[in-house]
Specification:
It is a single chain. With 218 residues, the chain is of the alpha+beta class. The radius of gyration is 18 Å and the shape is globular.
Length: 218
């Protein structure tokens, strides 16, 4: 994936934030006029909360992306129980999935532990799930396992899948590519004995949609 400059990151951040704020304004208008529009206030408030959470997570992603792309991020390794780690991710993201009538689940090997930067990989996984939320039809699945000397996180959905690599410019315009770039930098920041992490994107063998894998050296 091509290296991005700061202006591209900033432009995408402004574009995405503008879209989210526009949606928020629409929903606040809906609340103000709920009697005339006969809308469900609780559902609208839930939608607003989910939009605000996603907006906050995107700003965190942009901050990390800026630091990673300028070598300004100091990685902090921790040993984590991966099952507990994924359970936390699904708990936090489940409301966003439920608001779109999507199932979000995880599977993990028993007694699986891994060494990683929790804040960075939390943001990478949430970014991957938010991208999947745009395209999934019914299901999104997160899984983790050990493969050789790597801890592997896999995010799959039942949507149309990734475009070809040569269509990355389109992906960037849709922000999916920016999310992939962030995941790539997050993985590469994990280094063990000069072995760097990496990502792999392809077709899901379980859900028949997109599959993104994050490989972290152990």
């Amino acid at each position: 994936m091509n290296e991005l400059d700061i202006s591209t990151i900033l432009a995408s951040a402004i574009h995405e934030s503008k879209n989210r704020i526009g949606t928020l304004l629409y929903h606040t208008h809906t609340i103000k006029n709920h009697q005339e529009m006969n809308t469900d206030i609780d559902q609208t408030v839930d939608t607003i909360e989910n939009i605000l959470k996603q907006l906050n997570d995107e700003w965190v992603e942009y901050l990390y992306l800026y630091k990673l792309s300028t070598n300004g991020y100091n990685i902090h390794y921790e040993t984590l129980d991966i099952s507990e780690f994924l359970d936390d991710q699904v708990f936090v993201l489940s409301s966003s999935a439920s608001s779109k009538n999507l199932s979000l689940t995880f599977t993990c090997e028993k007694k699986l532990y891994g060494v990683l930067d929790e804040r960075l990989i939390t943001s990478a996984i949430s970014t991957s799930v938010y991208n999947a939320l745009r395209f999934a039809k019914k299901s999104i699945k997160i899984s983790a396992n050990k493969e050789d000397n790597f801890l592997v996180f896999t995010i799959e959905d039942d949507g149309p899948g990734f475009l070809n690599d040569e269509d990355d410019d389109f992906l960037f315009s849709e922000n999916t590519g920016l999310g992939l770039y962030f995941c790539e930098l997050s993985a590469q920041s994990h280094v063990v004995n000069e072995v760097k992490g990496y990502i792999s994107k392809g077709k899901s063998t379980q859900l028949d949609g997109a599959c993104l894998q994050i490989f972290l050296p152990q």
